[in-house]
Amino acid sequence: VIATMRDLRKKEKLEEAAGPALGKTLSIQRLDVCSDSSVADQRGSLSPPHHAAVNNAGVGHVGPVESISVEEMKRIFETNFFGAVRMIKAVLPDMKRRQSGHIVVISSVMGLQAEAGGGIVFNDVYAASKFAVEGFCESLAVQLLQFNV
Questions:
Q1: pLDDT per residue over 74-126, tens digit each?
Q2: Which GO terms describe its cellular component (predicted)?
Q3: Is residue 4 part of a domain?
């Protein structure tokens, strides 16, 4: 199992939780889901091919929409939505070729609330990014049934 983090300076809690598995069946490596090259570099180092991929990357922001710059909104979408897309694109070809695999994307109840028409006060951009993830994954799931993924 390979656990990845954008900032390895924060890995102590993960190492502690890993216990004796660290260095044996679990390794921690750097990966930034916002970087095509970081994802490509990590993808090349994974062996054997993926049987499951879990994407848990995410960032949030609380505040009224007028206080959030468009650049900050893009950063939130870059991590929460496009980060998940990058990771899925990295593992999908092998899974489709093997006709097996599991993709787990950790989203947020806020994405489901947005989908159901429930507003989330001061979390509009975060909820929108997670709503995008929900829609993407629901559509992708239908397509991937034929590949047993």
A1: 999 999 999 999 999 998 999 999 999 999 998 877 666 666 666 677 888 98
A2: cytosol
A3: no
Closest CA to 130 of 116, 143, 142, 144: 116
| Distance separating alpha carbons of residues 2 and 29, to the nearest angstrom | 7
Which residue(s) pair with 2 in the sheet? 27
Residue 64, exposed/middle/buried by CB under 10 A (0-12, 13-18, 19+)? Answer: exposed
79 in Cβ contact with 59 (< 8 Å)? yes
pLDDT by residue (tens digit) across 8-37?
888 898 889 989 988 888 888 888 999 999
Measured between alpha carbons, how far is 32 from 30 in angstroms, rounded to an integer?
Answer: 7
Location of structure tokens 């979390």:
123
Q: What is the pLDDT of residue 124?
A: 86
Q: Which residue has the tokens 């994974």?
A: 46
- Distance, in Å, from the CA atom of 20 to the CA atom of 16, rounded to the nearest integer, reads 9
Catalytic residues: 126
DSSP 35-84: -HHHHHHHHHH--S--SEEEE-------S-GGGS-HHHHHHHHIIIIIHH
Task: Output the domain CATH number for residue 69.
Answer: 3.40.50.720
Q: Which domain holds residue 110?
A: 50-147
Q: What does the block give as tokens for 67?
A: 């206080």
